Amino acid sequence: MDYIVLGLVVCFCFILIYTRAPLALLLTGCFRYNISTENEEQGNIRFSRNILCFFIMAVFSFFISFHDQLLIPLPVPLQGLSGPLVFGAVMGIFCIWFLFKVLIIRIIGWIVDAPAFMNFLGRTGQDFCILTGFVFIPFLVLFGSLNSLSGKAVIITAALIIATGYVTYVLRCIRIFLAAGFSLFFWILYLCTLELVPFGVLIHYVAGI
C-alpha cells in the first residue's frame, strides 16, 4: 500500500509540473462550453487528457481496493490476491472499460457518419472524469490524515462527488447533442446504452453494491 501511495504522489507531482497548463484548460472547459470546443482544436492536449484520465482511474482504484467496506466480500476472481494485486485488477477493469467505451464510440461515430461529434462526446466524458477525480483527491487526503479513510463518511463523499460530476456531464451532453442538431431521443439512447447501463454494471462488479 505504501508503495502505491508513493507512486500516486509522485505521479501527482509530475502532473502538476508537466501538465499543469493542459489540466487548467480541461478543467475550465468543464465549466465553459466555448473553451471545451476550443480544446478540441489543440492536438497536443489529447495526450495530457489520457494521462490525467488514467491517473484518476488509479486514484479511484486505490480507494476501492483498500477501503475496508468496499469489495467485501471479494469477487471470486480476486479472492486470494494481495492488496496490490487487487489494486492492479481493479485498475485493469477500469482500463478495459475505458478502452471499450473508446472503441464503441468510434464505431458509433462511423455508423452515424459523425466521428468528430462522437469523439467530442467521449473526450468530454474524460474531462468530467478528470474534474471529478481532482475534486475528490483533497477529500481523500483529508480523510486519510484523520485516519478515517475506511469510514462511511468517505464513501458518502465519493458518491456525492461522483453523482454531481456525472449529472453535470449529462447536462453538458444535452448541449452537445442540441448544438450538433441531434434530437433528445438520440441523446437518451446514447445515455442508456453507453453511460447508465455500463456504469451500473461497473459499480456493481467493482464496489459490490
Helix/strand layout:
Elements: H1 2-18, H2 20-29, H3 33-39, H4 44-66, H5 83-111, H6 115-145, H7 152-179, H8 184-207
Helix pairs in contact: 1-4, 2-3, 4-5, 4-6, 5-6, 5-8, 6-7, 7-8
**Rounded to an integer, what's the Rg over CA atoms?**
18 Å
| Count of DSSP strands | 0
User: Helical stretch count?
Assistant: 8
Topology order in helix (H) and strand (E) letters:
HHHHHHHH
Provide the structure class: mainly alpha
Residues in helix, %: over 70%
The CA-CA distance between the termini, in Å, is 24 Å
List segments where confidence is low: pLDDT < 50 over at least 5 consecutive residues. none
Largest sheet descriptor: none
Describe the structure.
With 209 residues, this protein is an all-alpha fold. Helices cover 81% and strands 0% of the residues. It is built from 8 helices and no strands. It has helices at residues 2-18, 20-29, 33-39, 44-66, 83-111, 115-145, 152-179, 184-207. It is globular.
Question: Concise description?
Answer:
Helices cover 81% and strands 0% of the residues. Helix 5 (83-111) runs antiparallel to helix 6 (115-145) and helix 6 runs antiparallel to helix 7 (152-179). It has helices at 2-18, 20-29, 33-39, 44-66, 83-111, 115-145, 152-179, 184-207.
